[in-house]
Amino acid sequence: MKKHTIILFLISIVIFTGCTASKTTLAKVNKQNLSTHALIIGTFSRNLGTSYLGHNSFEIVDLNHKLVKSVFDNAKDNMSLGGNPYEYNNDFIYKDTQGSIFAVLIPEGNYYLHKFSAGKGSGKYVGKFNKKIDVKRDDVLYVGDFNFKPIREKLENHPFFKNKKVTVGATVTIKNSLNRDYAVLKKHLGNDFLKKDEIKLSVINEEFNLIKFTSDVNPMLFLPVIIY
Predict the structure, then answer these.
(1) Do 77 and 22 form a contact (C-beta atoms < 8 A)?
(2) Residue 17 pLDDT
(3) Which residue stretches of the chain are H helix?
(4) Roughly how many angstroms between the first and final C-alpha of the chain, as a whole number?
(5) Residue 17: CB partners within 8 Å, gap ≥ 6?
């Protein structure tokens, strides 16, 4: 196999791992399961325009950092060949923002929101931010809007992608957008228990970067940037 063929093969492995299933973490909630669990709600949002990240996520872990729930927002199945942007199944589209709601049921207890990540395929950028939450059964806890924005750089001297813009990380901004998103949360989760004045808040205005790159693919086969 010729050298340039091998290079193209390795690049194609990177490209074709960009296929993900369209899915948002959204629990089926009723009065019975809410009587024994707490409901964690919030939103994933992205700026309007081309999406350069194929998935965004965080984990809910116990105080021993044992995984309880993975919460994620994945784009539709979409091959990234040729730099095609990602498309999402949006629950809301506003003037400058689009995104999806999430809702997860967890037992009563103390937890961390942990391991925020963003990326494409099996590659992702992660950060160290974590936030503690405490819940009791029958709680409905709003934890915020998590906006994921790619960090973009131009490759000046790359042998294959010279002057091509790439994603080298992501910035996550957390804020309280319950007033903005209450109507869409109520629409998807139901009227019986989602009363605004009974929703508890655990939101911290925060901004942090995800810049550490990880992948399930052999690192020798994966470029440490997301090409777009």
Answers:
(1) yes
(2) 41
(3) 3-16, 31-34, 178-189
(4) 27
(5) 120, 121, 122, 123, 217
Q: How far apart (Å, rounded) are the C-alpha atoms in residues 20 and 23?
A: 9
| Six-digit token string for 62 | 């116990």
Cα 68 from Cα 142, distance rounded (Å): 18
CA 15 to chain centre: 20
The CA distances from residue 51 to 29, 98, 148, 170, 207, in Å, are 30, 10, 10, 12, 19
pLDDT tens-digit series, residues 77-133? 755 544 567 889 999 999 999 999 999 999 999 999 999 999 988 899 999 999 999
* CB neighbours of residue 77 within 10 Å: 12
Measured CA distances, 144 to 3, 57, 74, 174, 177 (Å): 49, 14, 18, 6, 6
Q: Could you give the maximum distance between any two Cα atoms of the chain, in Å?
A: 66
